[in-house]
Amino acid sequence: MYEYGNGADRYGPAELVGKRDGIPAPRPSTCRVRLRHALHKADPDLALAHRRHPWITIFDDHEVANNAWKDGAENHTEGTEGTFASRRRAAYQAYSGVDAVPAA
Q1: Global model pTM greater than 0.90
Q2: What is the DSSP code string of 48-67?
Q3: Omega cis (within 30) before 54
């Protein structure tokens, strides 16, 4: 799951503009991570691929933010996007599907 929006930071082929845009459009804040994750999982092509083939998924830095490290990330702005710790907790929770994730 990539955290990019639909503007200049859009990621993906141009022919899919307007068809598979990230929703919500801006980078997901901690309150939007679950929505973005759910929408990725609702994609019909992805659902078909999951039905047809076994998958082994791995968690990477983009589940939280680009180039994340213990206390921050390349594209996380602490003052305007909340704390990095809360963003990371929300991302872990959305990825795992567990309602509560212990604080780090």
Answers
A1: no
A2: HHHHHS-------GGGTSTT
A3: no
